Amino acid sequence: MLLTIDCGNTNTVFSLWDGDAILQTWRTSTDHRRTADQYFVWLSTLMQVRGIKADVTSVVISSTVPRVVFNLRVLCDRYFDCRPLVVGKPECRLPVPPRVEEGVRPGPDRLANAAGAFQRHGGHVVVVDFGTATNFDVVAEDGAYIGGVIAPGVNLSLEALHQGAAALPHVDISRPERVIGTNTVACIQSGVFWGYTGLIEGITQRIKAEYGRPMKVIGTGGLAALFAQAEDLFDEIEDDLTMYGLRVIHDYNMAMTI
Ligand SMILES: Nc1ncnc2c1ncn2[C@@H]1O[C@H](COP(=O)(O)OP(=O)(O)O)[C@@H](O)[C@H]1O
Ligand SMILES: CC(C)(COP(=O)(O)O)[C@@H](O)C(=O)NCCC(=O)O
Ligand SMILES: [K+]
After folding, report:
1. Hey, which of 25, 83, 170, 249 has its CA 20 to 30 A from 63?
2. Which structural domain, as residue segments, surrounds residue 177?
3. 134 alpha carbon – ligand 2 mean position (Å)
């Protein structure tokens, strides 16, 4: 069985595949101190709950946090008896290499998104990925990641307001009915929700103009669905896009070695 691991700056997500379909997805907070043994106890408990026998034979990892990769490698070696493919490392080949400035190392999550988006949509795509950061990943006609935009994430912005302004509470994001807030919480929710709505609209419009041809806009990450309530921001929402891209990269590497 294939295990795909998407480690972001906030959360680490594990998806277990059965053939072409994701069987289960589990999420834990990202913490570089978590050991291989801790991961395994957690994973095997969740597998047991679902009645899944843990026969993981290959693993592919995307990590935007370099420090966690060490313990994930130990997990693979000790408990799954395999060497993981780590996206961004030289031994992990990509179906199409990114076209960016010399020496730049795009986030592995963005490379996975590009691989997934190309397989599903065939290029000319913008992926809007809501994580710790809000990323826009531009995927060209041939499937190459060619750059994009990194904006502060929604939760990071909310947290920054709370930390930087003595009188502002921590607020959970939601879609406010009105733009003009009549209490502090409503004002903050409006600023962040409608602010990000404008950001997504504005940036995708500018990307399309600069790119110069029609593009598909795909939303992914937990908050994509929330923003889809605002306007017509996305052509599609695909929550599993990063995982799917990891699978594409895994299959490509397997095909190269036989
Ligand atoms: N459905 C959701 N509703 C509210 N907040 C969410 C949801 N999904 C994710 N978040 C929040 O968004 C932030 C980033 O999410 P995540 O996709 O896990 O980031 P990363 O991939 O960078 O680790 C986290 O603070 C998380 O709590
Ligand atoms: C922009 C990111 C921090 C987003 O990571 P995430 O929000 O998923 O944790 C990550 O893709 C990253 O570290 N990128 C490296 C720089 C680049 O992509 O150009
Ligand atoms: K992510």
Report:
1. 170
2. 108-245
3. 9
E strand or H helix that includes residue 86: strand 85-86
Model pLDDT, residue 230: 83
Residues 6+ positions from 80 with CB-CB distance below 8 Å:
3, 56, 57, 59
What is the predicted ipTM?
A: 0.90
CA pair distance 66, 35, nearest whole angstrom: 15
Total number of domains constituting the chain: 2
Same domain, 81 and 116: no
93 located within any domain: no
The CA-based angle 7-59-10, given to 5 degrees, is 10
Q: What angle is formed at CA 89 by the lines to CA 87 and CA 95, rounded to 5 degrees?
A: 55
pTM of the model: 0.96
Which domain CATH number covers 37? 3.30.420.40
